[in-house]
Protein 1
Amino acid sequence: MDQVSWLKRRKPGIKDAKRREMPDGLWRKCEGCGEIIYHKELERNLWTCNKCGYHFRISADQYRDILTDPGTFVELLTAIESKDPLGFVDSKSYTERISSAKKKTGRKSAVMTGSARVDGHLTMLAILDFRFLGGSMGSAMGEKIARLTRMAIEERIPLVTLSSSGGARMQEGILSLMQMAKTSAMLAKLHEERLPHIAIQVHPTTGGVTASFASLGDVIVAEPGALIGFAGPRVIQQTIKQELPDGFQRSEFLLEHGMIDMIVHRKELKGALAKLLDFFSDDDRDSAEDALGQARKQGL
Ligand SMILES: [Zn+2]
């Protein structure tokens, strides 16, 4: 630095540059193995630990970016929002809880719904946002999932759901429980129409969401180490009065016991999804039907 510029800096009225601060979140500690990981590296690994494979919790937007072809996601049903039909108050009013969740996430309900392409395959896609009141299912989520499923039927497009949820939204009482029946009934129609639903479960998927649409996939895919269950382990332990086995309610345990179909690392999730969509695509189905028709004609 030459003398003139040094003098200039010392002139009154000219502020010194702000002290350099360490940016927040430059390093993250892995909750799996305790390793300190550089943020950029974590981002490159899609928020999974290189050392132990731990999957960090990420937002609905991040999942959208990971799973879909760039620029193809079109958000739908954005007008449907969480409301407080019962005027419910616990330690805080439900209206207040909704408005702070809206502010925090920038969305109007705990699920993002839309259409997108996955490796070229057009799909209807619903991604739950755990940051919005624990991804819990109230009337808005139920309605959005049901309507998206109906759109999938009308347009004859496969449905993909990605769940992370604490379960039903207790502040909406019975109305939230009714969403389990509503989403399940619409998915039964999707099934009758012979359209696929691929359900992805990530950490944690619990309660009424597990007990409805999240478990109604033609194929159920989970991320490694995800907690998936209906009631929590403590409640179960108290009820059955037995020690629970190691790894109980984790995706690996569930795969072993036939509750889910596959465990896929987040880095391979899009590829696996594309492969499944390819497998279920109309072309394959048509050619399979043609082959069957031909075989019948030939009296085989
Ligand atoms: Zn780790």
Protein 2
Amino acid sequence: MSETTTAAAAKNPSANPTTPIVHKKGQVDPASLRHRSLRTDEFWRRIPGWKDVDEATFLHHLWQEKHAITSPARLVEAVQSLASPEFIKDVEAGFHQAPMAVRISPYLLSLIDWSDPYHDPIRRQFLPVGSQLEPDHPMLTLDSLHEQDDAPVPGLTHRYPDKVLFLVLDTCPVYCRFCTRSYAVGLDTDVVDKVSLKATDERWERALQYIAERPDVEDVVVSGGDCYRLKPDQIRFLGERLLAMPHIRRFRFATKGIAVQPMKILTDTAWTDAVTEIVDKGKKLHKDVVIHTHFNHPNEITGITQRACDLLMERGVLVRNQSVFQRGVNDSAEVMTELVRKLSWVNVHPYYVYVHDLVRGTEDLRTSVATGVQVEKRVRGSTAGFNTPLFLVDAPGGGGKRDMHSYEMYDRETGISVYTAPAVKKDQYFCMYDPLSGLSARVQADWQDPAKRTQMVNDALAAAKARVI
Ligand code: SF4
């Protein structure tokens, strides 16, 4: 040991290379590292209808498409005796009341815990059951974010100064019960006739023309529907047209696919190659092209997901995640922390968590803003800041995304929070409403009375206006 090192060790014993290191932070409970355990078993073989399906078959994206569950009959065919006749009856009732068509991939269906489907977080998101449905909030409207009001051409919403949302098609590999775009996405249901947003040349040209005519737009969300449903040539076409516009600096392909059918990244090589090609072309032009995806629960992330995300990472494709905060799915700090850390483990950046929008037929999935505030407080600090999602309210009425904590006022008794969005819609106020089931019986009754309802909203707006400088 040199003289200098000896002197340093005398001053600070922990610098001495021969002294055992004292760990100031206690050893972690192995349970807190659960996010690193990714299942690699053939979990789909527990489903009686798929017990003989080998790995190569299960991983093929076309097999996944062909065996998607779209009706109670197909559900029974797959799960057979795993689900009780009472549960199947309950699902049938749910199908009839759902604003979204039902479609769930074999991948997701196999990840449901069939010993307790009522409480399973994946089942809750995709298979409605009649007995759990709650009446809609009286302030709910079908297109609660007013995407159509802010659309200069069908399927192109221009709300933020430099960004547009381009809904390129209206189909998805699965249909989520809670889809904000239940006004347009998927097939008509017993309760909703959908607005058509088909992938037609004419509609795309109108949207691309609008973007070309707007030098103020720099950012495009290419969404739908779901970009998993685009053909490789369509990805190239859209990508090249957007990259050719000098003012477009960045765009994202939005797909829930990585969460619900990750094997497509591995086996639909033409699709993955097309995305990679556009990302590479973007890099050469110094433009940012990424994928935005949508995981909501840690159980959705498996060894198959990791293989898909590894491939995307090798190809240089960045993936960000946007979750929806849902009751009985991810509305606890434990689940949300595990989700955030599991996403980070497979190199997906947790970007946003949205408080559940006001969507028809999903009151049983909504949470209050207060629950979000509590959970966010406990998630923040559990990992690096760039891997910590921002919790948002997408303000009903078209205010856009607001930091959940930035309400001008929040009356927890009536469940009304009021937001402003000065950079989006100056001088306007936007109300968000907590689910009725968490409010007192008296306030729930007041919400059913049109006069009292108007009074509660007016009082909340007046209080917010009094506070805004
Ligand atoms: S994948 Fe996205 S667009 Fe499609 S149903 Fe789900 S939330 Fe809606």
